Amino acid sequence: MRLPRPFALSLRVHNFDIGTRQNIDVSIATLNMETPRQTAFRSQAGFSLLELVIVCAILTIVLASVFNGVNLVTQRSQAEQTKVDLTQEGREFVDEFERDLHQAGYPNCRMVMAPGAANNCPADFSNTTVYQSSAVAAGLVKLSNTEIIFEGDVDGDGVVDTIRYRLVDSAGNSPPTGTCPCYIQRSQKPKVNGTDPLSQPTSWSQELQNVVNSGVPGNDASGNPLPYGGGLNISGSTAWGATNTSYYAAISSFKDFPVFQAYDQFGNIVPLPQDITNAAGSLILNCGPSSVSCVKSIRLTINLLANATTGVDMKTRVRPVMTLVGNARLVNN
What we know:
Shape: elongated
Helix content: 10-25%
Oligomer: single chain
Low-confidence stretches: 6-33
Mean pLDDT: 84
Radius of gyration: 43 Å
Number of strands: 11
Distance between the termini: 121 Å
Largest sheet: 6 strands, antiparallel
Order of helices and strands: EEHHHEEEEEHHEEHEE
């Protein structure tokens, strides 16, 4: 009969030798085919070198994937944050432009009597007393694709201000003649009595940077104003050696679209530049009884290119671009 293993067995053997009884106890602790030395070696066995190498390789692959994902998310987050910053800065500037233009021409010559004026209107070059009066806002004074000058009580404090917006190139020229990225400056100063509107003092206290559209379209062969054209080149090159002009301005309207564009009461583009130092310009900029076509709304278009140092997308090595548009209706014109 086979005994189960391991097992413990105790036997008592009776042996009679010459009349003497001897008791012999036999103890069998364990019947086991394995020796204690073999059992100890097996209980202490670990991973082999090959197993450790395989585990390390798997962990390396997993961690590399995790870190690559984290790096990609970080790069995309930075790129999106750059776009948010561009949009926020540009939107604030566009909103202020629209608010300013809503007050252009207020209070005008039909609302306020200029001291010493025989005829209170029109407020242009033909009526110098009213034209130069600090109590009367002359409205639109000058308008081109790169500059706009107008008068109005933009703060609602009863003081007529002269407001200027102008596009300046990377070398500080206005009108811009060099290269972009350019920037748009804003000036606001109280109107000085007895001074021509085009000669009023300036204070360039605000600006929007990284503007790359600077178009001055001109007219076609029939004399009709073109929607875009004549923009300046964009300075610098991309990370792979192409010029910024060839890459970012592959669509010509990106750099050729004008910053300022005017529309008449019929929705047609108004030929620019115009100013109120002559009869034709006065009729177009400030609508009068004899005006056939005059400015009723002004469009501001801004194409922004992220900074070359801090705004580059680390994944694509491309600088994000954003376009913002504002339309202001001249309610006092």
